[in-house]
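Hi P.,

Sorry for the delay on this. The queue was packed all week, but I finally got your sequence through. Input first:
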Amino acid sequence: MSKRRFYILLMLLVTGTGCNRLHRDIIARIKACEEAEPCVVDLKSITNFDWDTVYIWSGIPNLEDITQAIGMPYEFYEEFTHPIIFIKDHKIAFYENWEGSVEGIVNNQIFVQSGAGNSISGTFTPQSAIFDGWSIGPKGSKYYILRMRNDDK
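Then the structure:
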């Protein structure tokens, strides 16, 4: 491997290029239908990998909470983030740590809500990970809502 390729590869690994692709895809899906009623965000159709279960946190969990929820060590923990973790056959198939803050809302933050509008953290299957999505706020301080569909809570 040439020295140049090695440094490019190293830079990609260190900077995390390509991280939070799913976050961008969800926001792009919401922006694509923003003029209409809340658009449908189906995680199964947005993801390009197989998964059995997805764990989503609206709040900022600690490592112990994550490990307990997914039933295995989570070595990708980042403080002050909202993880989304996809599991396939009891292994982590994909994850992202979405930026968050304990002080307030971060631009482009995604919140997950129950059908009643309460912020939740949840476990979903490919069949149940279907949400209504929309944006709130002006450019520069916009955030996004994913509200569970067909939920009586």
